[in-house]
Amino acid sequence: MFRRRPPRPASSAEVVPLSRAQLLAILSGLLLVSGVLLYGLAYTLVSSFSAGAAPDGVPSNAHQDVDPAQRRDLVAAAPMASVAEDAGITPGVAISMPPAVMLPASTTVGASGVSSGFPRTPEGAAAQLAAIEVRVLSAMSLPLVTEVYRDWAMPGGVGAADWSQTRNVQSFLTHARQSSNQLDPGTLVSVTPAAIQIKGTDGPDWVVACVLLDVRAALRAEARMGYGTCERMQWTGDRWLIGPGAPPAPAPSTWPGSDASVEAGWQPVASN
Predict the structure, then answer these.
(1) How far is CA 104 from CA 36, 152, 178, 229, 271, in A?
(2) Least buried of 75, 171, 188, 208, by fewest C-beta within 10 Å?
(3) Where along the chain do its domains lie?
(4) CA 24, CA 17: separation in Å to the nearest integer?
(5) Low-confidence ranges of the chain (pLDDT < 70)
(6) pTM of the model
């Protein structure tokens, strides 16, 4: 059975994809040390928006008459809520929050040190995606991100070099002025799942899962942002993997727990 929740725009105004110049302007007033780290984090917004505008969404009942592969492409490409370009780095506290969802717990550690063993449910797919992203972004290591993609992505995707997280790690290491293709000692990055969205499903074995990550970096000062990400997730054998096909439309990046986060459709993750 196919289902897709239509996006809820945060505003009626059209949001122009974020450019590097705009991002630099946002960060220009920050202190140097925290600004460098935040630029390394916030550059993920540039990666998220680099795909350009997504095609208009298609009502769920219209998908039933199209080829299965095309149907999944339409679900993945459907646009998500538009938010302000600096929503991921603008602190805020929402007046009211939707009910929190408890993500299923990992039962084992899989390849490349990624937590695994999640159930064959949409929430299990979201939990597996979160585990993949947490492993990659907390390590900020290009050799590791390549290894994780090899172990956790199916053939037919974008490939390790063009994976959004590979570019995000490369960008962070570059703009945080790290000395190699791995995180320098003394630079700390922590990544925590803050909210999820189940954008759509197509039967029990295919999900477009989205995770909002609370990402923090510290090097004598701390930088923080909310970063939204989506992947096609496909059940293969006994686990969820990143599925083949073009990457989904960009997810909105918002400060966790803010009004913008709620309006963008993010559902907070309950603390264990």
Answers:
(1) 35, 19, 35, 19, 11
(2) 188
(3) 2-268
(4) 14
(5) 1-65, 220-223, 272
(6) 0.65
